[in-house]
């Protein structure tokens, strides 16, 4: 899974960190997750304990989007064999499927392919009857990949808004609150288009708290946020958006546009199942650490905030562990999930996990190895998953500090031979961070 793994596993501690990452990602792949959460027996589909009689439907359709939606779809085809009639999903680098069409879109900034794919998904959802069962794989990245602007908003407007939001330091919940109110397909839009068909959301969560309304901006879920919330977020982070976007949101706040549905009863034809999340990876990583003879401790699955600040907090706990045996006696592994953010001030290449790792490396910790990755294999807008560092990674810590100021973590870590490359992993369940403390 990890390129050049033998070189990166320079010490036993490095090897354990990489093993934890591999175990966590593998456990959250659609193949592993659907093997546990989904089954078909006697014509009955069971998803996370809920049953759907396939014989009661005239057709089964797959509609969705996200970085891992194509791989989820491929696994659905394997489980449901001849039951699936047709479908369409949008992903970044689509894998081959038999029955369902998979098309490419762009992430993190939507492009014309994202627009075309979202429009086609939305159109195929319209006009379905009660006799249709819609299986909707929704995964992280769906907010950009399912780009269907509402009202007079254009793709260019949406691109500018997304770029400003991503660089503002706003949380994913806040970013998606704005995106939902600029979209026809998000904030329950896909589910409303598919009514009265039965819609079963198959969700892989890449957001803290696993709210279906936040995952991929909630195409199949109710939305508790409002147009007023969206405007307040733009003002709070001083986000400069195109005039048409602000006018659209202001019209909604004035009651001139329909709100996204907050009442779950409006989407009574929908069942949303979160099949994998940060805990999926953390549990597997914890087992891998224990198997290697280290005492594992999960700090939290909900780490958020600025990546560099979270890095210092995580390192402080690891250092306390090394110095006093609190909160766990070394040899130990500290694990965390969640999603940190970066307020972009410079013009470099990087992502939250790269900045997390570089901030740790700058401190040159003794006897501590840290690995931080995005489980989808692409941190921020880069093509690397993250990095693995220790106290000797940087020959010049001051250059590392300068790189952080320019948000240019990738070149600094590449130069040090510390980046972790996996390629697309086929899953997306947030970040995974590992601190290994030797005895």
Automatic annotation (TrEMBL):
Query: What are its GO cellular component terms?
Result: cytoplasm
Name the Gene Ontology molecular function terms of this record. glycerate kinase activity; hydroxypyruvate reductase [NAD(P)H] activity
Which terms are listed as keywords in the entry? Oxidoreductase, Pyruvate
What single Pfam family name could you report for this chain, choosing any that match? DUF4147
Q: Which residues form the MOFRL domain?
A: 333-431
Q: Which organism is it from?
A: Halorhabdus utahensis (strain DSM 12940 / JCM 11049 / AX-2)
Asked whether the UniProt record includes Oxidoreductase among its keywords, one would answer: yes
List its EC numbers: 1.1.1.81
Q: Which residues form the MOFRL-associated domain?
A: 17-250
Q: Which InterPro entries match?
A: GK-like_C_sf, GK_N_sf, MOFRL, MOFRL_assoc_dom, MOFRL_protein
What name does this protein carry?
Hydroxypyruvate reductase
């Amino acid at each position: 899974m990890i390129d050049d793994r033998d070189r990166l596993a320079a010490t036993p501690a490095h090897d354990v960190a990489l093993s934890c990452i591999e175990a966590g990602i593998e456990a959250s792949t659609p193949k592993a997750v659907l093997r546990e959460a989904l089954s078909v027996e006697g014509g009955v589909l069971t998803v996370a304990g809920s049953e759907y009689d396939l014989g009661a439907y005239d057709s089964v359709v797959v509609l969705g989007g996200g970085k891992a939606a194509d791989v989820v779809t491929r696994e659905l085809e394997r489980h449901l064999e001849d039951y699936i009639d047709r479908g369409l999903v949008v992903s970044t680098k689509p894998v081959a499927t038999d029955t369902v069409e998979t098309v490419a879109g762009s992430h993190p900034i939507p492009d014309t392919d994202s627009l075309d794919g979202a429009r086609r998904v939305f159109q195929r959802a319209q006009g379905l009857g009660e006799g249709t069962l819609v299986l909707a794989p929704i995964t992280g990245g769906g907010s950009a990949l399912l780009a269907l602007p509402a009202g007079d908003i254009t793709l260019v407007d949406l691109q500018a808004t997304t770029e400003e939001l991503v660089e503002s330091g706003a949380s994913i919940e806040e970013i998606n609150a704005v995106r939902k109110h600029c979209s026809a397909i998000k904030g329950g839009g896909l589910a409303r288009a598919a009514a009265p068909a039965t819609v079963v959301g198959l969700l892989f969560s890449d957001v803290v708290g696993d709210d279906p309304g936040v995952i991929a901006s909630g195409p199949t879920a109710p939305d508790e946020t409002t147009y007023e919330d969206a405007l307040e977020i733009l003002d709070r982070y001083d986000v400069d958006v195109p005039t048409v976007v602000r006018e659209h949101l202001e019209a909604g706040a004035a009651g001139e546009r329909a709100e996204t549905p907050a009442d779950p009863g409006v989407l009574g034809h929908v069942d949303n199942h979160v099949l994998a999340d940060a805990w999926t990876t953390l549990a597997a990583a914890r087992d891998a650490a224990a198997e290697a003879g280290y005492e594992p401790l999960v700090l939290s699955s909900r780490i958020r905030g600025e990546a560099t600040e979270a890095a210092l907090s995580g390192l402080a706990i690891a250092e306390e562990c090394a110095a006093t045996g609190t909160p766990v006696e070394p040899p130990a592994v500290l694990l965390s999930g969640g999603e940190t953010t970066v307020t972009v001030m410079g013009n470099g290449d990087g992502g939250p996990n790269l900045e997390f790792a570089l901030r740790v490396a700058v401190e040159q910790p003794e006897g501590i190895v840290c690995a931080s990755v995005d489980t989808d294999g692409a941190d921020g807008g880069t093509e690397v998953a993250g990095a693995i560092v220790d106290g000797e990674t940087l020959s010049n810590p001051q250059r590392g500090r300068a790189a952080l100021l320019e948000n240019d973590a990738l070149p600094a870590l590449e130069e040090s031979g510390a980046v972790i490359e996996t390629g697309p992993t086929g899953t997306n369940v947030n970040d995974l961070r590992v601190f290994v403390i030797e005895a």
